[in-house]
Amino acid sequence: MKNLKDNGLLVLCNCPDRGMAVQLANQLLVQKLAACVNVMPEMLSMYFWEGKQETATEVALQIKTVQRLYSEVERLIISMHPYQLPEIIAIPIVDGLPAYLQWIREQTGN
After folding, report:
1. Is the pTM of this model over 0.90?
2. Which residues contact 67 (CB under 8 A, 6 or more apart)?
3. How confident is the model at residue 5 (pLDDT cuts 50, 70, 90)?
C-alpha cells in the first residue's frame, strides 16, 4: 500500500506581484519542496479585510508537491510572504496521470 504522505498535493497561494511570485517559486524549487510551480498571469482579487471591501492585483501560484512536505511549504511561504495573512490552500490530488504523479514524487525526493 502506498504511503499517504507521498500523495500529490496542489497548494494555491496568491502573491502581491510577479517578482514576489517568482522569488517564492524559485525557492520552492531550489529547496525541492515542489516539483513544479505555475506562476499565473496577474488577476484582480476582491475581498473583505478588516471590515472593508478591498480590490488588489495579485499573481497566483499553483504549487505541485506531496503531502509530507506541506508543513515545510507553508513555513517557507509564511517566511517570505509580505502579507499578514497569506492565502495558502492545499488541495489533495486524488487522481491523475500516474507517470506525472510519479514525477512529482521523484522531484520532491521520493
Report:
1. yes
2. 4, 5, 6, 7, 8, 9, 92
3. confident
